[in-house]
Write a structure and sequence with these properties.
By secondary structure, this protein is an all-alpha fold. Helices cover 66% and strands 0% of the residues. The protein has 45 helices and no strands. α34 (721-747) crosses α35, α34 (721-747) packs parallel to α36 and α35 packs parallel to α37 (800-819). The longest helix has 27 residues, at 721-747. The chain is elongated and about 130 Å long. The chain starts with a helix and ends with a helix. The model is unreliable at 1-8, 657-662 and 823-870 (pLDDT under 50).
């Protein structure tokens, strides 16, 4: 240690001697630099604080030594002395009694802070950030001290204030300096707080200073500097719309999202939908009245489009019952004093689409807009005056219609739904469904039978779904069904009533599950333990997928199956030996015995059909469970083995048994349930196979159907009902990987930016059918294939490249939005588990280390956490914690893999469209705002940004760099400071042009 001090002292003395010689002989700057470098080369192993020596000698007297000052400038400019060390010594000078020395230091600070390039130098970029903050703080302090001592007659202080304010203003107007100050702010919050406090003190002192004490020009220059300092924390990227399509008459994304919510998610909570809508509105930079116009217009377009389909009730309930809940939720999440005014403006703009409103009124035989306004007013979305004013405007338009088009019908879906709300409320509140079933069975049968008359049950369930009361209604039906199956059967009237209760509620619940998915009856312990839910989870097909069938299964009580089989064979409908749920459990075993006997020629066809008639003569639930078993059996056997079970199924569903009037509605609901069960297993040309629910033909390849559907949708600019159901069935049929690839590749077939923008808007909405899985497929499968393929390079060239980058970023943002602040995912979870889910679960459950670990220089993808080297993503400094993201989350894994691949591409020496795609991806992520940009870019390896800046200088602005780097981490601050410094010459030159 003593030896080091002695060496430093030795070099320091020699530098001082050389400096005195230079001063005596009046060396030039260049001569001084040459001699100094020679001295350092001789003492290469020694060190000294050259900046301190020069400043001490320069500021010996009351005035600075101009020659030594020039030596100091030359030493810094020739990079012998770090700029940051000189700035630190300047900030440490605190002697206002020597104003000319202060002026000299201010001049140095101005030169180094406004004219010096920070691209090169011996000091670290992070140290430059700290030094700049320190010297700016010092300038403010000098101004503050001068103002506090202005009562003394010292004219030189005016000169100090002018110079200090000019120097600070010049630094604050330099983009590189302001960006580096943002890094310094994150690096040392305490020092930045002191800087802000000095700014506040200076502002207050200046405001209290009487006029005339200092010249107006000085006051104005200080005020200008303070304004720049106040704006310093607001340095942000000017956010442009991520999705921008002002040239389109309809916003495809918002229009399609409303359609998907109305048609596919009629029972879902409004919170996820509202989150997605508000997120898209922010990213698209559209006003709230325009947002409301797009939503309302989509509703009326759906009303017109659905009048000839079975979706009419869904659109009516969504528009008139669920939309008001959505508006209330938007008001809660995005409050404002002008909310009702914005709604009024949105509806007022909707009145411009008179033809659309006229078509809705004519087809539904109802004044649809007036009904919509009434619903809004009841929920305080509009005031009564606003409602009346809008009604008057619409009435003027309706007066121009033909008298025949103004008629209203009592059977209109709009009118039925308007009354259904009251009916649902009364059903849920009535004591009949909740009363003691032991004493109240006959009235309950009457209430339930009344619900089945006509379209009543369909209307009630649709209204309950849109009101958010369907789960409550379903639970009441489950409790009733559980009661009806508990007691033993007998021949009394009570037994018959109990049978009717079980039968009706069984059919109702099957129908509800078919329409709204299994999740409508799961999630509640009481429901999970009920017979109907357990049976439905085991047997009832969902989304065209049949349950597994085990023909070797053994019944719990073979004697009950034998007894039931004898009853079927004899045609004697005795029911006093079993409970109703046991009939449902044992009937498939009996039907299996009959089928196997027929296949082995032990029974004649006539006897088998007689058994089917016997089953139909009993409760409707037995026909349903028989239909389910036969369809599941046909799904697992070959074509030849399907003939006999198909004949049984045809007889079960086609032959009509004489029904009493009280059971006609129940029979109608039974046939609706059975039609949905058997539709997917029947041959394509079968006469009983209905085409009402089939949108994907078995005679045409799925890719042909998809191409036609997307082409029509892209050309039209919005999704119709047929397109929605076709795409939904293709997704369920072919899986997310296939669907994602084909949809994106067809989107990229367009050439013009306007066409790509419209296609992108629709594809983003289409992905919301299963956003999380489709996003995973795109990030894990499609993007690596496009980035690594030489055949598809043209797909990454602009405008296709930045369109694809927008889609990736928007899907990631939407998926992340769906995970924040909500109880349920955005899409239905009734679909079959995807291949991605299976792979991820297998990976998470595996403890086997892979045989090969990814090499850092190869862009090799892996989903195994053991293959990740998190140092590639976040190089830690000493004392820093590891990344706080969940490394097992599928989205995080996908982004990690994608960024590692993009990092490998960036380090490739050649520039290709892949490079521009990566830049576009980062730029679009930044446009999404700080929250979502931080989530996406947290997986960006620290070597990626410097390489990009080296490959394409000036590709990112300083503000973008600040968004890319995580300034809360020391590594992020170092990368940001270095990138901003290397960007300084390019950005400063651009700013000066």
């Amino acid at each position: 240690m003593a030896e080091i001090k002695r060496e430093a002292t030795n070099l320091t003395n020699r530098v001082k001697i050389l400096l005195m010689q230079a001063w005596r002989e009046r060396w030039s700057d260049v001569q001084w630099g040459i001699q100094l470098k020679r001295l350092f080369s001789v003492h290469s192993g020694e060190s000294c604080d050259l900046a301190e020596i020069l400043l001490q000698q320069t500021l010996v007297g009351s005035s600075p030594n101009s020659l030594l000052l020039s030596y100091l400038k030359h030493t810094v400019l020739s990079q012998i002395v770090p700029c940051s060390s000189v700035l630190n010594y300047i900030a440490a000078f605190d002697d206002l009694s020597r104003p000319y020395c202060v002026l000299a230091l201010i001049h140095l600070a101005e030169v180094f802070g406004t004219k010096l390039s920070f691209s090169y130098g011996p000091d670290s970029s992070l140290q430059v950030c700290r030094s700049l903050l320190g010297v700016l703080h010092w300038l403010l302090l000098q101004l503050l001290k001068c103002l506090q001592t202005m009562r003394e007659e010292r004219p030189e202080l005016i000169q100090v204030m002018d110079s200090a304010s000019k120097a600070a203003t010049g630094m604050l107007r330099r983009p590189t300096v302001t960006a580096l100050l943002q890094v310094a702010r994150a690096d040392n919050t305490e020092a930045y707080r002191e800087f802000e406090q000095s700014e506040v003190n200076l502002r207050g002192t200046l405001s209290q200073l009487p006029p005339g004490v200092i010249p107006d020009s000085t006051r104005e220059s200080i005020s200008t500097m303070l304004t720049l300092a106040e704006e310093l924390p607001d340095v942000q990227v000017p956010l442009e719309p991520v999705l921008h399509a002002p040239h389109l008459p309809v916003c495809p994304t918002l229009n399609a999202l409303v359609a998907l919510e109305a048609v596919l998610n009629s029972n879902s909570d409004v919170q996820p939908f509202v989150d997605q809508i508000l997120m898209l509105a922010r990213l698209m930079k559209i006003s709230r009245p325009l947002l409301f116009l797009e939503i309302f217009r989509a509703c009326f377009m759906g009303l017109v489009d659905s009048t000839t389909s079975s979706e009419e009730l869904k659109w009516a309930t969504f528009t008139f019952l669920k939309m008001r809940q959505i508006m209330v939720k938007i008001q809660q999440l995005n409050p404002g004093p002008d909310f009702s005014s914005d709604v009024e403006k949105g509806i007022d703009m909707l009145l411009q689409y008179r033809h659309l409103l006229d078509q809705a009124d004519i087809k539904h035989r109802w004044d649809c807009l007036s009904q919509f306004l009434k619903e809004c007013m009841q929920f305080n979305i509009l005031t009564e005056n606003q409602m009346n004013l809008l009604k008057q405007k619409r009435q003027i338009q309706r007066e121009q219609l033909r008298p025949g088009d103004l008629t209203t019908s009592t059977t209109s879906s709009v009118g039925l739904i308007a009354r259904a709300e009251t009916t649902v409320i009364s059903i849920l509140k009535v004591e009949t469904l909740d009363a003691d079933h032991q004493k109240n069975q006959d009235p309950l049968v009457g209430v339930l039978s009344q619900m089945l008359s006509g379209r009543s049950f369909e209307i009630i369930t649709s209204a309950a779904a849109s009101m958010g009361e369907l789960k409550n209604f379903t639970m009441k039906l489950i409790r009733t069904n559980e009661f009806a199956r508990v007691g033993p059967a007998d021949t009394s009237k009570t037994s018959q009533t109990r049978a009717q209760l079980f039968d009706i509620t069984f059919l109702m619940l099957c129908h509800i599950i078919q329409l709204h998915g299994m999740e409508i009856v799961t999630g509640h312990k009481e429901a999970s333990e009920s017979f109907i839910v357990q049976w439905a989870q085991r047997w009832l097909p969902e989304d065209g997928k049949y349950r597994s069938l085990d023909t070797t299964a053994v019944p719990q009580d073979q004697s009950k199956v034998d007894s039931l089989l004898m009853q079927f064979m004899s045609g004697d409908p005795r029911t006093n030996v079993q409970r109703w749920h046991e009939l449902c459990i044992n009937t498939p075993f009996a039907v299996q015995e009959v089928l196997f006997a027929w296949e082995h020629k032990a029974l004649a066809k006539e006897k088998v059909m007689a058994v089917m008639d016997s089953i139909k003569s009993r409760m409707s639930c037995l026909s349903v469970v028989t239909c389910v078993w036969l369809c599941s059996y046909m799904n697992v056997v070959g074509t030849d083995a399907r003939q006999k079970p198909l004949a049984m199924l045809e007889h079960l569903t086609r032959v009509k048994i004489e029904q009493a009037t009280s059971t006609e509605s129940r029979s109608h609901l039974m046939h609706m349930v059975m039609e949905r069960i058997m539709n997917d297993v029947l041959p394509g040309s079968h006469p009983q196979r209905t085409c009402a629910h089939m949108y994907v033909s078995t005679d045409v390849l799925p890719i042909v159907t998809l191409h036609k559907t997307l082409t029509d949708a892209f050309q039209r600019g919005w999704l119709g009902l047929s397109s929605i159901h076709t795409l939904e069935q293709l997704l369920a049929l072919c899986g997310s990987d296939w669907f994602c690839e084909k949809v994106v590749m067809q989107m990229l077939e367009w050439n013009k930016a306007e066409e790509l923008s419209q296609a992108l808007s629709l594809v983003l909405a289409i992905f919301h059918m299963d956003l999380e899985h489709l996003t995973h497929s795109m990030l894990l499968r499609l993007m690596p294939r496009l980035l690594l393929s030489t055949v598809h390079t043209h797909m990454l060239t602009d405008p296709r490249g930045f369109t694809l980058a927008k889609l990736c970023v928007l899907c990631i943002t939407g998926t992340q939005t769906s995970k924040i602040g909500q109880k349920e995912p955005y899409v239905r979870r009734s679909r079959k588990r995807s291949k991605i889910d299976a792979e991820l679960e297998d990976i998470d459950d595996s403890d086997i280390r892979p045989g090969k670990v990814r090499k850092l220089h190869e862009p090799q993808l892996t989903l195994n956490l053991e293959g990740f080297n998190l140092d590639d993503i976040s190089a830690k400094e000493d004392g820093e914690s590891s990344p706080n993201f969940d490394s097992k989350d599928p989205m995080n894994k996908a982004l990690i893999n994608l960024f590692l691949l993009m990092n490998a591409i960036i380090h490739d020496p050649s520039l290709t469209p892949r490079t521009t795609f990566i830049i576009s991806f980062i730029e679009e992520a930044i446009k999404c705002g700080a929250q979502y940009a931080r989530f996406i870019l947290q997986f960006m390896p620290p070597t990626m940004l410097p390489q990009l800046m080296k490959t394409m200088p000036g590709v990112f602005s300083n503000a973008q760099i600040l968004q890319i780097c995580d300034l809360t981490m020391l590594t992020g601050r170092k990368v940001a400071a270095k990138a901003i410094s290397s960007n300084s010459r390019f950005m400063d030159k651009t700013a000066s042009v």
